[in-house]
Amino acid sequence: MTAARPELSPLVARLLQRVDDFENQVSILRKQLRRHVSAVPFAPPRIIIRALGRMQVRINGKLVRTADWQVQSARDLFFLILSFQDGLNKEEIGNIFWPDSTPAELKLRFKNTVYRLRRAIGRETISFDDELYCFNRDLDYEYDVETFLHEINLVQQSASPDQRIRHYQAAIRNYRGGFMPEVEETWVISERERLQRTFFDTIINLIELHLVARHYAQVLEYCQRALEEDACLEAAHRYAMQAYAALGNRAAVQRQYELCCRSLREEMDIAPSAQTENLYKEMMKKT
Question: Nearest-CA neighbor of 219 among 165, 263, 272?
Answer without folding.
Answer: 165
